[in-house]
Amino acid sequence: MAxxxxxxxxxxxxxxxxxxxxxxxxxxxxxDGSARFHGDLARAAVDDLVRRDWxxxxxxxxxxxxxxxxxxxxxxxxxxxPANWEEPARDGRCVRMSATPAGEDAYRALxxxxxxxxxxxx
Length: 122
Fold this sequence. Notes:
The chain is α+β, with helices and mostly antiparallel strands. The protein has helices spanning about 1-15, 20-30, 35-50, 75-80, 100-110; strands at about 15-20, 55-60, 65-70, 95-100.
């Protein structure tokens, strides 16, 4: 889970990344794993990041038009919907994520060679 958390957090820092992009990255890093396994791992990692307030989710109209923050009470439903983990059609709706300042700080701590891990349970 620690690697999936790092992958998802980097995606969120890099841009308003789509949820499907986390799955793609895990598929690339571990081509021997199943897409379903990577999807489940990505979902758990993003859920964890949202709970830590390291990432926020946004509804978006493709291509990258009109970001609207997902309300906290809607996050479980949004993450559970398989359609939100698939690449959207042109002009389709999707869910994107972005790192919070706390998430950016956590990523730097997680990737610092000698730095403390902000999550000692990982």
